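Deliverable D4.2, example record:
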Amino acid sequence: MKASATLLLALAATTAQVRADAAADSDVISLTKDTFSEVAQKPLSLIEFYAPWCGHCKALAPEYEKAATELKSSIPLAKVDCTEQTELCQEHDVRGYPTMKVFREGEPSEYKGQRTAESIIGYMKKLALPPVSDLSADKVKEFAESDKVVVVGFFEDKTSDEYKAFEAAANKLRDTFLFGATTEEEAFKAQGVKAPAIVLFKKFDEGKNTFDAKFEEGAISNFVQTVSVPLMDEIGPENYGYYMENGLPLAYLFVSTPEERATVGKEIEPLAKDFRGKVNFVYIDASKFGGHAKNLNLKESWPAFVIHESEKNLRYPFDQGKKVNHADVKAFVQDFVNGKLEPSLKSEEIPKENDGDVKVVVGKSYADIVLDTDKDVLIEFYAPWCGHCKALAPTWEELGKEAKKLSDKIVIAKMDGTENDLPSDAPFSVQGFPTIKLVKAGDNEVVDYAGSRTLESFIDFLKANAVHGGGAEKKEAKEGDDKKTEEEGHDEL
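Output generated by the structure prediction step:
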Protein backbone atom coordinates (compact mmCIF):
# COMPACT_ATOMS: atom_id res chain seq x y z
CA MET A 1 0.00 0.00 0.00
CA LYS A 2 2.83 2.35 0.97
CA ALA A 3 4.67 1.51 -2.27
CA SER A 4 1.53 2.26 -4.30
CA ALA A 5 1.13 5.65 -2.61
CA THR A 6 4.78 6.43 -3.26
CA LEU A 7 4.35 5.50 -6.92
CA LEU A 8 1.24 7.70 -7.24
CA LEU A 9 3.08 10.64 -5.68
CA ALA A 10 5.99 10.12 -8.04
CA LEU A 11 3.68 9.99 -11.06
CA ALA A 12 1.87 13.15 -9.92
CA ALA A 13 5.17 14.94 -9.44
CA THR A 14 6.34 13.84 -12.89
CA THR A 15 3.06 15.00 -14.50
CA ALA A 16 3.29 18.36 -12.74
CA GLN A 17 6.90 18.77 -13.89
CA VAL A 18 5.96 17.92 -17.49
CA ARG A 19 3.21 20.54 -17.38
CA ALA A 20 5.55 23.10 -15.85
CA ASP A 21 8.20 22.37 -18.50
CA ALA A 22 5.57 22.68 -21.26
CA ALA A 23 4.41 26.01 -19.86
CA ALA A 24 8.02 27.20 -19.58
CA ASP A 25 8.66 26.25 -23.22
CA SER A 26 5.55 28.08 -24.42
CA ASP A 27 5.59 31.61 -25.82
CA VAL A 28 1.88 31.95 -24.97
CA ILE A 29 1.51 33.67 -21.58
CA SER A 30 -0.94 32.03 -19.16
CA LEU A 31 -2.91 34.68 -17.28
CA THR A 32 -4.79 34.84 -14.01
CA LYS A 33 -6.94 37.57 -12.50
CA ASP A 34 -3.80 39.00 -10.86
CA THR A 35 -1.66 39.08 -14.02
CA PHE A 36 -4.29 39.88 -16.65
CA SER A 37 -3.97 43.67 -16.67
CA GLU A 38 -0.19 43.45 -17.07
CA VAL A 39 -0.69 42.10 -20.61
CA ALA A 40 -4.02 43.76 -21.46
CA GLN A 41 -2.63 47.24 -20.69
CA LYS A 42 0.22 46.90 -23.18
CA PRO A 43 0.04 48.96 -26.43
CA LEU A 44 -1.17 45.86 -28.31
CA SER A 45 -1.87 42.26 -27.25
CA LEU A 46 -4.04 39.27 -28.16
CA ILE A 47 -5.73 37.17 -25.46
CA GLU A 48 -7.52 33.84 -25.96
CA PHE A 49 -10.22 32.78 -23.49
CA TYR A 50 -10.50 28.99 -23.62
CA ALA A 51 -11.56 25.78 -21.91
CA PRO A 52 -9.22 22.74 -21.84
CA TRP A 53 -12.01 20.38 -23.00
CA CYS A 54 -12.95 22.55 -26.02
CA GLY A 55 -12.18 20.85 -29.36
CA HIS A 56 -11.83 24.15 -31.27
CA CYS A 57 -9.41 25.39 -28.58
CA LYS A 58 -7.30 22.24 -28.96
CA ALA A 59 -7.19 22.75 -32.74
CA LEU A 60 -6.17 26.39 -32.27
CA ALA A 61 -3.42 25.66 -29.72
CA PRO A 62 -0.51 24.78 -32.09
CA GLU A 63 -1.40 27.62 -34.47
CA TYR A 64 -1.61 30.07 -31.58
CA GLU A 65 1.76 28.85 -30.29
CA LYS A 66 3.42 29.39 -33.69
CA ALA A 67 2.00 32.90 -33.87
CA ALA A 68 3.14 33.67 -30.30
CA THR A 69 6.69 32.60 -31.14
CA GLU A 70 6.74 34.74 -34.29
CA LEU A 71 5.36 37.82 -32.52
CA LYS A 72 6.92 37.50 -29.05
CA SER A 73 9.44 40.30 -29.54
CA SER A 74 6.75 42.89 -30.31
CA ILE A 75 3.19 41.68 -29.54
CA PRO A 76 2.37 39.38 -26.59
CA LEU A 77 -0.11 36.54 -27.09
CA ALA A 78 -1.74 35.22 -23.93
CA LYS A 79 -4.51 32.86 -22.79
CA VAL A 80 -6.99 32.54 -19.93
CA ASP A 81 -8.34 29.17 -18.77
CA CYS A 82 -12.00 29.95 -18.11
CA THR A 83 -12.52 26.75 -16.10
CA GLU A 84 -10.14 28.20 -13.50
CA GLN A 85 -10.58 31.97 -13.99
CA THR A 86 -14.39 32.03 -14.12
CA GLU A 87 -14.85 35.55 -12.71
CA LEU A 88 -12.31 37.00 -15.13
CA CYS A 89 -14.06 35.40 -18.10
CA GLN A 90 -17.49 36.58 -16.94
CA GLU A 91 -16.08 40.08 -16.53
CA HIS A 92 -15.02 40.01 -20.21
CA ASP A 93 -18.38 38.62 -21.40
CA VAL A 94 -16.98 35.31 -22.67
CA ARG A 95 -19.91 33.25 -24.00
CA GLY A 96 -18.14 30.58 -26.03
CA TYR A 97 -14.74 29.03 -26.66
CA PRO A 98 -12.37 30.03 -27.93
CA THR A 99 -13.02 33.77 -27.63
CA MET A 100 -10.14 35.89 -28.90
CA LYS A 101 -9.87 39.57 -28.03
CA VAL A 102 -7.41 42.25 -29.09
CA PHE A 103 -6.41 44.71 -26.37
CA ARG A 104 -4.98 48.20 -26.89
CA GLU A 105 -3.94 49.70 -23.55
CA GLY A 106 -6.78 47.89 -21.79
CA GLU A 107 -9.46 48.54 -24.44
CA PRO A 108 -10.82 45.28 -25.94
CA SER A 109 -12.05 44.61 -29.46
CA GLU A 110 -13.04 41.42 -31.25
CA TYR A 111 -10.38 39.44 -33.13
CA LYS A 112 -11.78 39.14 -36.65
CA GLY A 113 -9.14 36.99 -38.35
CA GLN A 114 -8.95 33.27 -39.00
CA ARG A 115 -7.60 30.78 -36.47
CA THR A 116 -4.36 29.99 -38.28
CA ALA A 117 -0.85 31.07 -37.38
CA GLU A 118 -0.47 32.90 -40.69
CA SER A 119 -3.73 34.81 -40.23
CA ILE A 120 -3.04 35.69 -36.59
CA ILE A 121 0.46 36.95 -37.43
CA GLY A 122 -0.75 39.01 -40.39
CA TYR A 123 -3.73 40.40 -38.49
CA MET A 124 -1.69 41.50 -35.47
CA LYS A 125 1.10 42.98 -37.57
CA LYS A 126 -1.54 44.95 -39.44
CA LEU A 127 -2.90 46.31 -36.15
CA ALA A 128 0.61 47.30 -35.08
CA LEU A 129 0.95 49.62 -38.06
CA PRO A 130 -0.21 53.24 -37.87
CA PRO A 131 -3.72 53.82 -39.30
CA VAL A 132 -2.09 55.23 -42.44
CA SER A 133 1.43 54.16 -43.43
CA ASP A 134 3.60 56.92 -44.96
CA LEU A 135 4.84 55.70 -48.36
CA SER A 136 7.69 56.89 -50.53
CA ALA A 137 7.23 56.54 -54.30
CA ASP A 138 9.48 53.48 -54.50
CA LYS A 139 7.48 51.67 -51.77
CA VAL A 140 3.96 52.08 -53.17
CA LYS A 141 4.05 48.99 -55.42
CA GLU A 142 5.48 46.76 -52.67
CA PHE A 143 2.90 48.03 -50.15
CA ALA A 144 0.02 47.56 -52.64
CA GLU A 145 0.97 43.88 -53.01
CA SER A 146 1.48 43.21 -49.30
CA ASP A 147 -2.06 41.98 -48.54
CA LYS A 148 -5.19 40.66 -50.24
CA VAL A 149 -6.73 44.16 -50.10
CA VAL A 150 -4.71 47.38 -49.72
CA VAL A 151 -5.89 51.00 -49.91
CA VAL A 152 -3.50 53.74 -51.06
CA GLY A 153 -4.21 57.47 -51.05
CA PHE A 154 -2.41 59.96 -53.30
CA PHE A 155 -2.35 63.54 -51.94
CA GLU A 156 -0.45 66.74 -52.63
CA ASP A 157 -0.17 67.36 -48.88
CA LYS A 158 -1.46 65.93 -45.61
CA THR A 159 -3.16 69.07 -44.38
CA SER A 160 -5.95 68.93 -46.95
CA ASP A 161 -9.57 68.09 -46.11
CA GLU A 162 -9.36 65.17 -48.55
CA TYR A 163 -6.47 63.62 -46.60
CA LYS A 164 -8.27 64.15 -43.28
CA ALA A 165 -11.34 62.32 -44.64
CA PHE A 166 -9.09 59.49 -45.85
CA GLU A 167 -7.38 59.28 -42.45
CA ALA A 168 -10.75 59.17 -40.66
CA ALA A 169 -11.87 56.25 -42.85
CA ALA A 170 -8.57 54.49 -42.20
CA ASN A 171 -9.01 54.85 -38.45
CA LYS A 172 -12.48 53.35 -38.70
CA LEU A 173 -11.39 50.36 -40.84
CA ARG A 174 -7.82 49.82 -39.65
CA ASP A 175 -8.63 46.43 -38.05
CA THR A 176 -9.65 45.04 -41.43
CA PHE A 177 -7.63 46.80 -44.14
CA LEU A 178 -4.15 48.20 -44.76
CA PHE A 179 -4.05 51.92 -45.58
CA GLY A 180 -1.10 53.89 -46.95
CA ALA A 181 -0.58 57.34 -48.43
CA THR A 182 2.00 59.16 -50.52
CA THR A 183 2.58 62.80 -51.44
CA GLU A 184 5.25 62.18 -54.08
CA GLU A 185 4.60 63.21 -57.69
CA GLU A 186 6.60 60.26 -58.96
CA ALA A 187 4.10 57.88 -57.34
CA PHE A 188 1.18 59.73 -58.99
CA LYS A 189 2.74 59.26 -62.41
CA ALA A 190 3.58 55.60 -61.81
CA GLN A 191 -0.04 54.81 -60.99
CA GLY A 192 -1.51 57.14 -63.59
CA VAL A 193 -3.55 59.15 -61.06
CA LYS A 194 -4.04 62.82 -60.34
CA ALA A 195 -4.04 63.88 -56.69
CA PRO A 196 -6.19 63.67 -54.68
CA ALA A 197 -6.98 60.03 -55.48
CA ILE A 198 -7.66 56.74 -53.71
CA VAL A 199 -6.94 53.35 -55.27
CA LEU A 200 -7.94 50.03 -53.72
CA PHE A 201 -5.60 47.23 -54.81
CA LYS A 202 -6.86 43.63 -54.54
CA LYS A 203 -5.72 40.16 -55.53
CA PHE A 204 -8.99 39.15 -57.22
CA ASP A 205 -11.61 40.34 -59.72
CA GLU A 206 -10.55 43.60 -61.46
CA GLY A 207 -7.28 43.90 -59.52
CA LYS A 208 -7.94 47.50 -58.45
CA ASN A 209 -10.68 50.12 -58.13
CA THR A 210 -10.42 53.91 -58.10
CA PHE A 211 -12.53 56.06 -55.79
CA ASP A 212 -14.72 58.46 -57.77
CA ALA A 213 -17.01 60.11 -55.20
CA LYS A 214 -16.77 63.12 -52.89
CA PHE A 215 -13.94 62.96 -50.38
CA GLU A 216 -15.93 62.34 -47.22
CA GLU A 217 -15.23 59.75 -44.54
CA GLY A 218 -18.55 57.93 -45.06
CA ALA A 219 -18.18 57.75 -48.83
CA ILE A 220 -14.60 56.49 -48.58
CA SER A 221 -15.52 53.84 -45.99
CA ASN A 222 -18.45 52.68 -48.12
CA PHE A 223 -16.22 52.47 -51.21
CA VAL A 224 -13.63 50.34 -49.40
CA GLN A 225 -16.19 48.01 -47.83
CA THR A 226 -18.04 47.56 -51.13
CA VAL A 227 -15.27 46.92 -53.66
CA SER A 228 -13.15 44.87 -51.23
CA VAL A 229 -15.74 42.08 -51.38
CA PRO A 230 -15.18 39.57 -54.22
CA LEU A 231 -17.95 39.77 -56.81
CA MET A 232 -18.87 36.12 -56.27
CA ASP A 233 -16.63 34.09 -54.00
CA GLU A 234 -17.26 30.69 -52.42
CA ILE A 235 -18.39 31.01 -48.82
CA GLY A 236 -17.09 28.76 -46.06
CA PRO A 237 -16.04 28.83 -42.39
CA GLU A 238 -12.96 30.93 -43.14
CA ASN A 239 -14.85 33.90 -44.66
CA TYR A 240 -18.41 33.57 -43.32
CA GLY A 241 -17.71 36.04 -40.51
CA TYR A 242 -16.46 38.63 -42.99
CA TYR A 243 -19.72 38.56 -44.94
CA MET A 244 -21.76 38.81 -41.73
CA GLU A 245 -19.68 41.78 -40.59
CA ASN A 246 -20.07 43.48 -43.97
CA GLY A 247 -23.78 43.79 -43.23
CA LEU A 248 -25.22 43.65 -46.75
CA PRO A 249 -27.91 41.09 -47.62
CA LEU A 250 -26.26 37.89 -48.81
CA ALA A 251 -27.42 35.97 -51.89
CA TYR A 252 -26.47 32.27 -51.82
CA LEU A 253 -26.25 30.14 -54.93
CA PHE A 254 -26.24 26.47 -53.81
CA VAL A 255 -24.45 24.23 -56.31
CA SER A 256 -23.57 20.56 -55.86
CA THR A 257 -21.03 19.88 -58.65
CA PRO A 258 -18.29 21.78 -60.53
CA GLU A 259 -20.40 21.42 -63.70
CA GLU A 260 -23.42 22.98 -61.99
CA ARG A 261 -21.27 25.84 -60.72
CA ALA A 262 -19.90 26.48 -64.20
CA THR A 263 -23.24 26.46 -66.01
CA VAL A 264 -25.50 28.14 -63.44
CA GLY A 265 -22.72 30.45 -62.27
CA LYS A 266 -22.40 31.81 -65.79
CA GLU A 267 -26.04 32.91 -65.51
CA ILE A 268 -25.76 34.46 -62.04
CA GLU A 269 -22.26 36.01 -61.84
CA PRO A 270 -23.14 39.08 -63.97
CA LEU A 271 -25.86 39.91 -61.42
CA ALA A 272 -23.24 40.17 -58.67
CA LYS A 273 -21.76 43.12 -60.54
CA ASP A 274 -25.16 44.65 -61.33
CA PHE A 275 -26.18 44.66 -57.66
CA ARG A 276 -22.78 45.38 -56.11
CA GLY A 277 -23.14 47.54 -53.01
CA LYS A 278 -26.74 46.41 -52.49
CA VAL A 279 -26.46 42.62 -52.26
CA ASN A 280 -23.40 40.39 -51.89
CA PHE A 281 -23.37 37.16 -53.92
CA VAL A 282 -21.65 33.88 -52.99
CA TYR A 283 -21.42 30.29 -54.09
CA ILE A 284 -22.03 27.65 -51.44
CA ASP A 285 -20.99 24.03 -51.93
CA ALA A 286 -24.17 22.00 -51.38
CA SER A 287 -22.18 18.77 -51.11
CA LYS A 288 -20.52 20.15 -47.94
CA PHE A 289 -23.03 22.63 -46.54
CA GLY A 290 -26.36 21.47 -47.95
CA GLY A 291 -27.77 21.35 -44.43
CA HIS A 292 -27.56 25.16 -44.30
CA ALA A 293 -30.38 25.26 -46.86
CA LYS A 294 -32.89 24.33 -44.16
CA ASN A 295 -31.80 27.36 -42.11
CA LEU A 296 -32.63 29.50 -45.15
CA ASN A 297 -36.06 27.90 -45.72
CA LEU A 298 -34.95 25.89 -48.76
CA LYS A 299 -35.43 22.24 -49.61
CA GLU A 300 -32.25 20.27 -50.28
CA SER A 301 -32.65 20.37 -54.06
CA TRP A 302 -29.96 21.92 -56.27
CA PRO A 303 -29.23 24.38 -57.71
CA ALA A 304 -31.04 26.78 -55.39
CA PHE A 305 -30.94 30.53 -54.78
CA VAL A 306 -31.88 32.51 -51.68
CA ILE A 307 -31.29 35.98 -50.21
CA HIS A 308 -30.63 36.23 -46.48
CA GLU A 309 -30.96 39.52 -44.60
CA SER A 310 -28.85 38.43 -41.64
CA GLU A 311 -29.30 41.50 -39.44
CA LYS A 312 -33.06 40.82 -39.26
CA ASN A 313 -32.70 37.08 -39.98
CA LEU A 314 -35.14 37.30 -42.90
CA ARG A 315 -35.02 34.76 -45.75
CA TYR A 316 -36.17 35.20 -49.33
CA PRO A 317 -35.93 31.85 -51.18
CA PHE A 318 -36.23 31.83 -54.97
CA ASP A 319 -39.08 29.54 -56.10
CA GLN A 320 -37.53 26.06 -56.26
CA GLY A 321 -40.13 25.05 -58.82
CA LYS A 322 -38.46 27.41 -61.32
CA LYS A 323 -35.17 27.07 -63.14
CA VAL A 324 -32.35 29.22 -61.72
CA ASN A 325 -31.56 31.47 -64.69
CA HIS A 326 -30.31 34.99 -65.33
CA ALA A 327 -33.58 36.70 -66.24
CA ASP A 328 -35.77 35.28 -63.47
CA VAL A 329 -33.18 35.69 -60.73
CA LYS A 330 -32.43 39.26 -61.87
CA ALA A 331 -36.13 40.15 -61.57
CA PHE A 332 -36.27 38.42 -58.18
CA VAL A 333 -33.26 40.35 -56.82
CA GLN A 334 -34.57 43.62 -58.25
CA ASP A 335 -37.89 43.07 -56.47
CA PHE A 336 -35.98 42.41 -53.25
CA VAL A 337 -33.96 45.63 -53.62
CA ASN A 338 -37.17 47.55 -54.35
CA GLY A 339 -38.82 46.14 -51.21
CA LYS A 340 -41.45 44.21 -53.14
CA LEU A 341 -40.68 40.74 -51.75
CA GLU A 342 -42.20 39.25 -48.62
CA PRO A 343 -39.85 37.10 -46.52
CA SER A 344 -40.78 33.46 -46.10
CA LEU A 345 -42.01 32.41 -42.67
CA LYS A 346 -40.88 29.02 -41.45
CA SER A 347 -43.44 27.48 -39.12
CA GLU A 348 -44.48 24.20 -37.62
CA GLU A 349 -48.17 23.39 -37.71
CA ILE A 350 -50.31 24.99 -35.01
CA PRO A 351 -50.87 22.39 -32.24
CA LYS A 352 -54.39 20.96 -32.22
CA GLU A 353 -54.32 21.03 -28.43
CA ASN A 354 -52.51 23.77 -26.53
CA ASP A 355 -54.01 23.76 -23.05
CA GLY A 356 -50.84 23.11 -21.01
CA ASP A 357 -49.39 25.42 -18.40
CA VAL A 358 -46.82 26.49 -21.02
CA LYS A 359 -48.31 27.58 -24.34
CA VAL A 360 -46.58 26.29 -27.49
CA VAL A 361 -46.02 29.07 -30.03
CA VAL A 362 -45.18 28.48 -33.71
CA GLY A 363 -44.52 30.95 -36.51
CA LYS A 364 -48.16 30.90 -37.65
CA SER A 365 -49.56 31.50 -34.15
CA TYR A 366 -47.02 34.06 -32.90
CA ALA A 367 -49.25 37.10 -33.43
CA ASP A 368 -52.35 35.48 -31.92
CA ILE A 369 -50.63 34.36 -28.72
CA VAL A 370 -47.65 36.65 -28.13
CA LEU A 371 -49.19 39.91 -29.35
CA ASP A 372 -52.49 39.48 -27.48
CA THR A 373 -52.85 42.97 -25.97
CA ASP A 374 -54.88 41.61 -23.05
CA LYS A 375 -52.04 39.37 -21.86
CA ASP A 376 -48.48 39.62 -20.59
CA VAL A 377 -46.50 36.89 -22.38
CA LEU A 378 -43.15 35.63 -21.11
CA ILE A 379 -41.74 33.55 -23.96
CA GLU A 380 -38.68 31.33 -24.20
CA PHE A 381 -37.04 30.77 -27.59
CA TYR A 382 -35.22 27.45 -27.39
CA ALA A 383 -33.43 24.81 -29.46
CA PRO A 384 -34.03 21.08 -28.89
CA TRP A 385 -30.27 20.41 -28.85
CA CYS A 386 -29.43 23.24 -26.42
CA GLY A 387 -28.17 21.96 -23.06
CA HIS A 388 -29.11 25.15 -21.19
CA CYS A 389 -32.65 24.90 -22.62
CA LYS A 390 -32.97 21.30 -21.46
CA ALA A 391 -31.83 22.32 -17.97
CA LEU A 392 -34.37 25.15 -17.92
CA ALA A 393 -37.34 23.01 -19.09
CA PRO A 394 -38.62 21.73 -15.69
CA THR A 395 -38.33 25.23 -14.16
CA TRP A 396 -40.24 26.68 -17.12
CA GLU A 397 -43.05 24.17 -16.65
CA GLU A 398 -43.23 24.99 -12.96
CA LEU A 399 -43.30 28.69 -13.82
CA GLY A 400 -46.31 28.00 -16.05
CA LYS A 401 -48.20 26.77 -12.98
CA GLU A 402 -46.98 29.48 -10.59
CA ALA A 403 -47.66 32.39 -12.97
CA LYS A 404 -51.39 31.60 -12.88
CA LYS A 405 -51.36 32.46 -9.19
CA LEU A 406 -50.22 35.99 -10.06
CA SER A 407 -52.83 36.51 -12.76
CA ASP A 408 -54.79 34.60 -15.37
CA LYS A 409 -53.61 37.30 -17.77
CA ILE A 410 -49.98 36.18 -17.61
CA VAL A 411 -48.98 33.58 -20.23
CA ILE A 412 -45.82 31.48 -20.10
CA ALA A 413 -44.88 30.32 -23.61
CA LYS A 414 -42.13 28.66 -25.59
CA MET A 415 -41.12 28.52 -29.27
CA ASP A 416 -38.65 26.24 -31.04
CA GLY A 417 -36.38 28.79 -32.68
CA THR A 418 -34.90 26.22 -35.04
CA GLU A 419 -38.25 25.35 -36.66
CA ASN A 420 -40.11 28.67 -36.51
CA ASP A 421 -39.38 32.21 -37.67
CA LEU A 422 -40.31 35.44 -35.96
CA PRO A 423 -42.57 37.74 -38.00
CA SER A 424 -40.65 40.18 -40.21
CA ASP A 425 -41.91 43.12 -38.16
CA ALA A 426 -40.74 41.72 -34.81
CA PRO A 427 -38.76 44.42 -32.95
CA PHE A 428 -36.00 41.96 -31.98
CA SER A 429 -34.15 38.93 -33.29
CA VAL A 430 -33.05 35.74 -31.56
CA GLN A 431 -29.25 35.38 -31.56
CA GLY A 432 -28.84 32.48 -29.15
CA PHE A 433 -30.66 29.94 -26.98
CA PRO A 434 -32.37 30.22 -24.65
CA THR A 435 -33.57 33.78 -25.30
CA ILE A 436 -36.31 35.00 -22.96
CA LYS A 437 -38.52 38.04 -23.63
CA LEU A 438 -41.53 39.57 -21.90
CA VAL A 439 -44.09 41.04 -24.30
CA LYS A 440 -46.25 43.28 -22.14
CA ALA A 441 -50.00 43.64 -22.30
CA GLY A 442 -51.35 46.82 -23.88
CA ASP A 443 -48.65 48.25 -26.16
CA ASN A 444 -46.64 44.98 -26.57
CA GLU A 445 -43.51 46.60 -25.16
CA VAL A 446 -40.65 44.05 -25.15
CA VAL A 447 -38.53 43.62 -22.02
CA ASP A 448 -35.41 41.44 -22.10
CA TYR A 449 -34.93 38.91 -19.32
CA ALA A 450 -31.31 38.75 -18.19
CA GLY A 451 -31.62 37.36 -14.64
CA SER A 452 -30.80 33.95 -13.23
CA ARG A 453 -32.86 31.02 -14.47
CA THR A 454 -34.57 30.18 -11.21
CA LEU A 455 -38.28 30.06 -10.44
CA GLU A 456 -37.94 32.80 -7.83
CA SER A 457 -36.12 35.13 -10.23
CA PHE A 458 -38.74 34.65 -12.95
CA ILE A 459 -41.59 35.35 -10.48
CA ASP A 460 -39.84 38.48 -9.19
CA PHE A 461 -39.29 39.65 -12.76
CA LEU A 462 -42.98 39.22 -13.62
CA LYS A 463 -44.07 41.03 -10.46
CA ALA A 464 -41.80 43.95 -11.31
CA ASN A 465 -42.38 44.18 -15.08
CA ALA A 466 -45.64 42.56 -16.18
CA VAL A 467 -48.67 44.83 -16.46
CA HIS A 468 -50.68 42.17 -14.59
CA GLY A 469 -47.86 41.17 -12.26
CA GLY A 470 -48.69 43.58 -9.46
CA GLY A 471 -45.87 46.02 -10.18
CA ALA A 472 -48.02 48.43 -12.21
CA GLU A 473 -50.71 48.57 -9.52
CA LYS A 474 -48.09 49.18 -6.84
CA LYS A 475 -46.56 51.98 -8.90
CA GLU A 476 -49.95 53.65 -9.38
CA ALA A 477 -50.65 53.34 -5.65
CA LYS A 478 -47.29 54.88 -4.81
CA GLU A 479 -47.84 57.74 -7.27
CA GLY A 480 -51.26 58.31 -5.63
CA ASP A 481 -49.68 58.44 -2.18
CA ASP A 482 -47.03 60.87 -3.41
CA LYS A 483 -49.69 63.10 -4.94
CA LYS A 484 -51.76 63.03 -1.74
CA THR A 485 -48.72 63.92 0.38
CA GLU A 486 -47.88 66.78 -1.97
CA GLU A 487 -51.44 68.13 -1.79
CA GLU A 488 -51.55 67.84 2.02
CA GLY A 489 -48.28 69.69 2.34
CA HIS A 490 -49.29 72.59 0.09
CA ASP A 491 -50.41 75.84 1.75
CA GLU A 492 -52.65 78.25 -0.09
CA LEU A 493 -51.51 81.88 -0.06
